[in-house]
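This week, look over our next protein:
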Amino acid sequence: MVLEEPKVTNINKKKITENFEHSLQILQTWFSPSFPIGSYSFSHGLEALIEDKLIVNKNDILDYLNCILFYGTCKNDIILIKYAYQGTDLNDFAFSLCPSKERKIESLEMGNAFRKVLKDSWNYELPINTAYPVCIGKAANYFQIPLNLTIISFLQSFISNLVNVCVKHIPIGQKIGQDCIVHSIKLVNKIVKKSNKYSLDDIGGICFNSDIYSIKHERLLTRVYKT
Protein backbone atom coordinates (compact mmCIF):
# COMPACT_ATOMS: atom_id res chain seq x y z
CA MET A 1 0.00 0.00 0.00
CA VAL A 2 1.33 3.43 -0.92
CA LEU A 3 0.88 6.05 1.76
CA GLU A 4 0.16 9.61 0.75
CA GLU A 5 2.53 12.25 2.01
CA PRO A 6 0.83 14.23 4.80
CA LYS A 7 -0.01 17.85 4.04
CA VAL A 8 0.46 19.07 7.60
CA THR A 9 3.82 20.59 6.66
CA ASN A 10 2.20 22.95 4.16
CA ILE A 11 -0.41 23.98 6.71
CA ASN A 12 2.32 24.68 9.27
CA LYS A 13 4.28 26.71 6.74
CA LYS A 14 1.22 28.79 5.97
CA LYS A 15 0.56 29.36 9.67
CA ILE A 16 4.19 30.34 10.29
CA THR A 17 4.05 32.77 7.37
CA GLU A 18 0.83 34.31 8.64
CA ASN A 19 2.25 34.65 12.17
CA PHE A 20 5.43 36.24 10.80
CA GLU A 21 3.46 38.72 8.70
CA HIS A 22 1.23 39.59 11.67
CA SER A 23 4.28 40.09 13.90
CA LEU A 24 5.89 42.29 11.28
CA GLN A 25 2.76 44.44 11.07
CA ILE A 26 2.76 44.97 14.83
CA LEU A 27 6.48 45.81 14.97
CA GLN A 28 6.25 48.21 12.04
CA THR A 29 3.46 49.97 13.93
CA TRP A 30 5.28 50.10 17.28
CA PHE A 31 8.51 51.43 15.76
CA SER A 32 6.93 53.75 13.25
CA PRO A 33 7.71 57.49 13.69
CA SER A 34 3.92 57.98 13.92
CA PHE A 35 3.63 55.76 17.03
CA PRO A 36 3.09 58.35 19.79
CA ILE A 37 5.97 57.76 22.20
CA GLY A 38 7.90 60.93 21.33
CA SER A 39 11.15 59.22 20.29
CA TYR A 40 11.89 62.11 17.91
CA SER A 41 12.35 64.45 20.90
CA PHE A 42 15.32 62.51 22.32
CA SER A 43 18.89 62.59 20.97
CA HIS A 44 20.51 60.27 23.56
CA GLY A 45 23.12 62.98 24.24
CA LEU A 46 24.03 63.13 20.55
CA GLU A 47 23.02 66.80 20.34
CA ALA A 48 25.77 67.73 22.82
CA LEU A 49 28.37 65.69 20.91
CA ILE A 50 27.44 67.54 17.72
CA GLU A 51 27.53 70.91 19.49
CA ASP A 52 31.15 70.25 20.56
CA LYS A 53 32.06 69.18 16.99
CA LEU A 54 32.91 65.60 18.00
CA ILE A 55 30.56 64.26 15.34
CA VAL A 56 30.75 66.20 12.08
CA ASN A 57 30.77 63.72 9.18
CA LYS A 58 29.80 60.25 7.97
CA ASN A 59 32.80 58.46 9.50
CA ASP A 60 32.12 60.03 12.90
CA ILE A 61 28.50 58.90 12.74
CA LEU A 62 29.42 55.33 11.82
CA ASP A 63 32.00 55.15 14.63
CA TYR A 64 29.37 56.40 17.07
CA LEU A 65 26.75 53.90 15.88
CA ASN A 66 29.23 51.02 16.09
CA CYS A 67 30.10 51.97 19.67
CA ILE A 68 26.46 52.37 20.76
CA LEU A 69 25.48 49.05 19.17
CA PHE A 70 28.28 46.80 20.42
CA TYR A 71 29.58 48.52 23.54
CA GLY A 72 26.82 50.78 24.83
CA THR A 73 23.11 51.36 25.23
CA CYS A 74 21.91 49.15 22.38
CA LYS A 75 23.75 46.08 23.64
CA ASN A 76 22.36 46.58 27.15
CA ASP A 77 18.85 47.25 25.85
CA ILE A 78 18.64 44.07 23.81
CA ILE A 79 19.76 42.05 26.84
CA LEU A 80 17.02 43.73 28.88
CA ILE A 81 14.50 43.02 26.12
CA LYS A 82 15.60 39.38 25.99
CA TYR A 83 15.21 38.80 29.72
CA ALA A 84 11.99 40.81 30.02
CA TYR A 85 10.64 38.68 27.16
CA GLN A 86 11.51 35.59 29.21
CA GLY A 87 9.66 36.97 32.24
CA THR A 88 12.55 38.21 34.39
CA ASP A 89 11.70 41.14 36.68
CA LEU A 90 14.47 43.67 36.05
CA ASN A 91 12.82 47.08 35.82
CA ASP A 92 14.80 48.63 38.69
CA PHE A 93 17.96 47.11 37.26
CA ALA A 94 17.19 48.68 33.89
CA PHE A 95 16.95 52.16 35.41
CA SER A 96 20.12 51.62 37.43
CA LEU A 97 22.02 51.24 34.15
CA CYS A 98 21.19 54.81 33.08
CA PRO A 99 24.44 56.83 33.35
CA SER A 100 22.66 60.19 33.68
CA LYS A 101 19.43 61.84 34.72
CA GLU A 102 18.44 62.46 31.11
CA ARG A 103 19.00 58.84 30.07
CA LYS A 104 16.60 57.81 32.83
CA ILE A 105 14.09 60.44 31.66
CA GLU A 106 14.39 59.07 28.12
CA SER A 107 13.70 55.47 29.13
CA LEU A 108 10.98 56.43 31.61
CA GLU A 109 9.03 58.80 29.36
CA MET A 110 9.18 56.53 26.30
CA GLY A 111 8.19 53.56 28.46
CA ASN A 112 5.20 55.36 29.96
CA ALA A 113 4.09 56.64 26.54
CA PHE A 114 4.39 53.14 25.07
CA ARG A 115 2.50 51.72 28.04
CA LYS A 116 -0.33 54.27 27.63
CA VAL A 117 -0.84 53.49 23.94
CA LEU A 118 -0.90 49.74 24.58
CA LYS A 119 -3.39 50.18 27.42
CA ASP A 120 -5.69 52.55 25.49
CA SER A 121 -5.61 50.93 22.05
CA TRP A 122 -4.13 47.43 22.30
CA ASN A 123 -5.91 46.12 25.44
CA TYR A 124 -2.66 45.23 27.15
CA GLU A 125 -1.57 46.88 30.37
CA LEU A 126 1.98 47.20 31.66
CA PRO A 127 2.97 48.55 35.09
CA ILE A 128 3.42 52.30 35.26
CA ASN A 129 7.02 53.60 35.16
CA THR A 130 8.37 50.61 33.27
CA ALA A 131 11.65 51.20 31.40
CA TYR A 132 11.19 51.33 27.64
CA PRO A 133 13.23 48.20 26.71
CA VAL A 134 11.45 46.23 29.44
CA CYS A 135 8.11 47.35 27.99
CA ILE A 136 9.18 46.12 24.56
CA GLY A 137 10.25 42.72 25.84
CA LYS A 138 7.08 42.14 27.86
CA ALA A 139 4.78 43.34 25.08
CA ALA A 140 6.53 41.23 22.42
CA ASN A 141 6.09 38.15 24.58
CA TYR A 142 2.41 38.91 25.21
CA PHE A 143 1.67 39.35 21.49
CA GLN A 144 3.78 36.25 20.65
CA ILE A 145 6.22 38.12 18.44
CA PRO A 146 9.54 36.33 17.77
CA LEU A 147 12.31 37.71 19.97
CA ASN A 148 14.93 38.12 17.23
CA LEU A 149 12.48 39.97 15.00
CA THR A 150 11.62 42.26 17.91
CA ILE A 151 15.28 43.02 18.60
CA ILE A 152 16.03 43.74 14.93
CA SER A 153 13.08 46.14 14.69
CA PHE A 154 13.97 47.86 17.96
CA LEU A 155 17.61 48.39 16.97
CA GLN A 156 16.84 49.62 13.47
CA SER A 157 14.36 52.12 14.88
CA PHE A 158 16.89 53.26 17.51
CA ILE A 159 19.61 53.75 14.89
CA SER A 160 17.29 55.51 12.44
CA ASN A 161 16.30 58.00 15.12
CA LEU A 162 19.95 58.81 15.91
CA VAL A 163 20.82 59.21 12.23
CA ASN A 164 17.85 61.54 11.84
CA VAL A 165 19.27 63.71 14.64
CA CYS A 166 22.56 63.91 12.70
CA VAL A 167 20.81 64.74 9.42
CA LYS A 168 18.99 67.67 10.99
CA HIS A 169 21.52 68.91 13.54
CA ILE A 170 25.02 68.61 12.00
CA PRO A 171 23.51 68.99 9.36
CA ILE A 172 24.31 66.36 6.73
CA GLY A 173 22.46 65.50 3.54
CA GLN A 174 19.76 62.85 3.30
CA LYS A 175 22.10 60.80 1.08
CA ILE A 176 24.72 60.51 3.83
CA GLY A 177 21.97 59.73 6.33
CA GLN A 178 20.71 56.87 4.20
CA ASP A 179 24.26 55.61 3.65
CA CYS A 180 24.66 55.38 7.43
CA ILE A 181 21.37 53.52 7.81
CA VAL A 182 22.27 51.06 5.05
CA HIS A 183 25.63 50.43 6.72
CA SER A 184 23.92 49.93 10.08
CA ILE A 185 21.80 47.05 8.72
CA LYS A 186 24.89 44.81 8.65
CA LEU A 187 25.86 45.92 12.15
CA VAL A 188 22.36 45.21 13.49
CA ASN A 189 22.32 41.72 11.96
CA LYS A 190 25.74 41.03 13.45
CA ILE A 191 24.79 42.01 17.00
CA VAL A 192 21.46 40.17 16.82
CA LYS A 193 23.38 36.97 16.08
CA LYS A 194 25.66 37.66 19.03
CA SER A 195 22.69 38.44 21.29
CA ASN A 196 21.70 34.76 21.35
CA LYS A 197 24.71 34.17 23.63
CA TYR A 198 24.32 37.29 25.76
CA SER A 199 23.39 36.96 29.42
CA LEU A 200 22.96 39.47 32.23
CA ASP A 201 26.68 39.03 32.90
CA ASP A 202 27.35 40.82 29.60
CA ILE A 203 25.60 43.99 30.75
CA GLY A 204 27.93 46.99 30.72
CA GLY A 205 29.43 49.53 28.38
CA ILE A 206 32.50 51.52 27.44
CA CYS A 207 30.93 54.32 25.38
CA PHE A 208 32.31 56.90 27.75
CA ASN A 209 31.92 59.91 25.45
CA SER A 210 28.28 59.05 24.82
CA ASP A 211 27.59 58.67 28.54
CA ILE A 212 29.48 61.83 29.55
CA TYR A 213 27.76 63.91 26.89
CA SER A 214 24.36 62.68 28.02
CA ILE A 215 25.28 64.45 31.29
CA LYS A 216 26.72 67.48 29.51
CA HIS A 217 23.49 67.85 27.53
CA GLU A 218 21.71 68.76 30.78
CA ARG A 219 23.69 72.03 30.84
CA LEU A 220 23.22 73.10 27.23
CA LEU A 221 21.88 76.66 27.11
CA THR A 222 20.08 76.09 23.82
CA ARG A 223 18.67 72.70 22.97
CA VAL A 224 16.35 71.14 20.43
CA TYR A 225 16.02 67.74 22.12
CA LYS A 226 15.02 66.71 25.63
CA THR A 227 18.11 64.52 26.02
Q: What stands out?
A: The two ends are 72 Å apart (CA to CA). The chain has one domain: 39-219.
